[in-house]
Automatic annotation (TrEMBL):
PANTHER family: DNA REPAIR PROTEIN RADC, UPF0758 PROTEIN VC_0510. CDD domains: MPN_DUF2466. The keyword Hydrolase applies. GO terms for biological process: proteolysis. Coiled coil: none annotated. The lineage of its organism: Bacteria, Pseudomonadati, Pseudomonadota, Gammaproteobacteria, Pseudomonadales. This is DNA repair protein RadC.
Amino acid sequence: MSQFSFTTDCSLLVRDGQGRYRLATADQILEAARHVIDTKIMNGAPFTSPDLVKDYLGAKLAGYEHEVFAVLFLDSRHRLIKYVEMFRGTIDSASVHPREVVKEALKLNAAAVIFSHNHPSGHPEPSTADRTLTGRLREALGLVDVRTLDHIIVAGHDRVSFAESGLL
């Protein structure tokens, strides 16, 4: 039996510990959305378009009140090996360590990566620090033959792709 249910007006209900349903909170709705996107894009699924990647990452990173830096690790055919939220920060920054990203890419035998992080401020434009970090990560991963395909910033309903913006 599912822990989620919907009312006729499409409100989300969640089952509590006693088996009763009540209206879901905003955080529970976001968690349900993350569950749906995980079910829709299973490991091994190919990312066939930039819009699919942006929708996936938007669902995964939406609603956080702090920065989260995540990486999509992909095989040589750009199929998802694993989505990993690698670093958690504050409301306006997250410390990202290239060494840890490289270690995870090697552990997963990834051929390519897509970086992503959220801007809780709602402003999607990449900062100078975002651009510098992306260059450092790209360089570090390039040394072990892992291609950087994109870096996507999620800010509310907006998504900015470094590749589409000519920044990569």
